Predict the 3D structure of the following.
Amino acid sequence: MNLKRLAGLDILSEEYAYADDARFGYVAASRAADKWVPTTCGYCSVGCGMLLGVKDGRATAVRGDPSHPVNRGKLCPKGLSEHHTLSARGRAQYPLLRRSGKMARVGWDEALDTMAARIRGIQARHGAQALGVISTGQLVTEEFYALGKLVQLGFGTNHYDGNTTLCMASAVSGYKRSFGSDGPPGCYGDLAQADVVLLVGANIAENHPILCQRLTQNPGATLIVADPRVTKTAMMADLYLPLKPRSDLALVNAMAHVLIRDGLYDREYVERYTTGFAELKASLESYSPERAAKITGLEEYTIEHAALLYGRARAAFIGWTMGVNHSTQGTETVNAINNLALLAGQIGRAGAAPFSITGQCNAMGTREAGFASSLPGYRKFESGEDRAELAALWKIAPERIPAARGLAYPDIIEAVLARRIRALWIIATNPAVSFPNHDLIRQALETVEFLVVQDGFHPTPTSEYAHLVLPAAIWGEKEGTFTNSERRVSKVNRALAPPAEARPDFDIFLDVAGRLGMREELFPGWQGPRDAFEEWRRVSRGRLCDYSAITWEAAANGGIQWGGERLYGDGRFPSGDGKARLWPVDWQPFPEPPSREYPLILNTGRTVEHWHTRTKTGAVRVLDGMSPRAWLEMNPRDARALGLKPHDRVSMISARNRVDGVELRVTEIVAAGQVFMPFHFAGTNANRVTQSAYDPISREPNFKQCAVRVEKTAAARSAGRVWKSRP
Amino acid sequence: MADGEACGAAGRAGILPEQKPAEGEQYRFHFDMTRCIGCRCCEVACAEQNGTPIEINWRRVGEIEGGAYPVTQRFYLSMGCNHCLEPSCLKGCPVNAYRKDGATGIVLHSPEACIGCGYCTWNCPYGVPQYNPARGVVGKCDLCYHRLEQGRAPACADACPEGAIRVELVNIEEWKRDYSSADAPGLPAAVHTLSTTRITLPDPIAAAFERADHHRVRPADPHLPLVFMLVLTQISAGAFLFLAFLPGARRQAALAALAVALVSLAASTLHLGRPAFAWRALKMWKRSWLSREVLCFSLFAAAAGISAVAPAAPFAAALGVAGVTASAFIYLVPARPAWNSMRTMADFHLTALLLGPLFLAAWGIHVPMLVAAIAAAAQLLNQILKLLALAASDEFELRAASRLLTCDLRALLLARMGLLIVGGIVLPLTGRPLWALGLAVPAELLSRYLFFAGVVPKNVADSFMARRAA
């Protein structure tokens, strides 16, 4: 601080000056821009259109794109401050290679040569399947398409999955089982057109706040929210269903039971467009509201009331997110939801859809084009016809396309521990924070022979373990397309060059293919993402996710929904017989009930200020300032019994491990016997206590319920733990 | 696309009034609590609009909570400046850095005119003006005055996805008659300043709502320069009070007391963000107690100086008493309930009556020590009465101040009372004035420290989690 400032002669007038931005008017001069680059938000999959302001080679501001049909100029707090991620501290800048325990800066050539040589070496010794790849929902579709080919055809391993398995896998599996294919049937407009909206385990006011506009537009609709926690969304509800944790399947089954019992289901629709009604009906016999009331803790009449509201609706919408998916019964719960919608014929019409509200900005893109959980274009590994078609499009031998899906994400981690997978390539995700049962992933990251972490940030809790760090461009620094929850393909554009030597993931993938000597074979004549997009358009032609009518230019203009506004309007489903399938599904209790030693049920979730593991939002000062720490919500009754006060620092202990120094919030938001904690914070990581339990079909982890006890943190433990780095 | 366009129309329409304010009208915010979903877009948009650092929030979203699971209600309060009809920030400002714009009613602040005394931050019951230490001046929400001039919405209203924040016109006379919709749970009563922000409350709203920040009251800024400034001016004023009545010339003691006054005035400028402009504080003596304090003590220092060569001690004494009185009036503000009591007036004067005689006695002047002992005893009683009044109050800020003093600051409080008893009563009565002064001065410095640190300002309810400081 200089003397002029101390004396008060200087009040930093220049730094705090205002300017008149040509497009957006009077604003702090530091936020005015010379150029506004249209793009799509890089956080969640609502897919808001935005304008990224640039001045003097710096991203200065973000504005909601007033002409974009998804958000019409509005953004959430993360979106409003997204430009700060581009200049945030902690960006990865140079390739780094571990040499005798220390990370040393190397050139790209050395980095990629080393990567190819090490992986090829391990594959030569242990088989091609000794490489596992874990990607993300954050890349552009063109990158996912390129990466899928590189991993499956180039490296020849099918042990390839994304962090989308921690997120939407249950929705994917549920859709595939019910309808024959992945693909959310509805659109956001349905929220504004339904007369009944049922949200199950979906806290959109916190996690997808821009979607709430659609409900605001639809004041006549009855909003029903089923959630064990009185979330921001629950407080918006006309009918709130405070059900016990993980009892949603029983609730939905009981609603279906009432529809059948009272003849409120759509007989004609069921007969013409579905199979399996008889089995479903038989299985639902036992789901009387009386029994469901015992399972869910709701009143019998409340369940009846919800069922009648849904059954009598002209157009009824069901939205769900992680409350359903993060479960060992996630897929089956999705099937129960789809059953209900099919029974009532509430699908394929305006306002009528079962609809998964996706997490990451481009989780949809990797599902469509990614070649991980299915072949590109929602083709099936197990279908010879699909493999042959794809091989013909790619002009390769059909045998090169695997006939079965490789290991899913949690199984890749288990395989690392079993030494079946020896090399791991992690791209744009942070499992050291996001994976359940932290000790397991820590062991895996510590023991894997060769770990490549490709990320826009370094160090992250995951990249700390890496042998090789590849610095990647992030949102704002690269071009491509994202698909949002409602299947809208929107353009993402480059406004700035990546920092230092960081490169777009797309370029890295092409370069790696080059090191394998396969660039021309995998990516013939490709220069940029547009080449991948054009090939993907051909590959997706005729599939449910058909991009052939979507052009690069059209995607830039508010985006285009593949499949139109809604799917299945004609009642034809992409299953073998063209019909949707009704699945009898049975409720089971969650895997780790509370016990004497661990008497509380932990529920995990998010807060509006942060995104996933805070790699980005933790580096955005305004967001970090608003929400700097994790907290634990506990009902006043439990707090009294434990002698705890608001703002006490508490420890949460499960059969796995413990988290210390979490700030206690005593609140009636959670029921007695339950606690809630956000999972964003690396220093107080909720996933240190969550368990290794996965949905048998989707392999999605059961993040949402586990048994814990809570006690006051002893002073010695209260200092925040830091990331554990590799020895 | 069709629904997107509809959405746009619903989202944009009506966040600005159709016309500019007519005669007798002004702009104001309308906050619809039933629409707010607590997404905090407004806070981020405001910070981006104004380029404010993270510890400064011209718009803040607070939480209030009530009910019992599962009938729990949590509502959000998104508040910027209320552009009050009787803005206490403006009234107290010693340099006239505020003005209430005639055409729009917007309360505007000029960083160029501001000297960074922070008095407005004590006066506003909503915590609206915030001091920016990096600049040395205060800043506040101006309802995006310049954007309104351009026909654009304020950043907060523009960003709100739910249309919960709007700008509308208010008829000033009608609002003066009925401003009941400016009140809401979690907000200080509008009566103090006639806040113009209209709030739409949920209907029905549960009776007992608690602020989410209720349990995280922390000691306030102790303002060390002011701790010294107050105690030293009070020593000096007290000394001159007795010099004026004691027979004979006491030149040396008078000069010493003058030196104390000058040191204290110098100390007070350290409190300012812009000490170079301290002289401006004289400007608003007709309106601001802060200006009056500066004026009184400046004249006091002048009279005290003259008294070294001419018989001006009685003038100095009168000006000193006036200065101490003006000092006390500065703190009698509704926005800081723990200060807003005649006990503060008594406190400051009793310090003068305690330390003035002890100071003179230390210079070998014979002053009846019983005066000091009585002042100390009264001071002790004053402190105890304050603690009792705080604890017995049903006002949140007073009870919270009681908790601060008796829990967080207990050790200092006990030390102060101990020092006061020994230094203010025992030692003076046992004829050890120098020792007495040595203990009584720290006692009163501690007292002022507790005065500043132990206040809980009125403010808008905040979120549960404390924000990260800079």
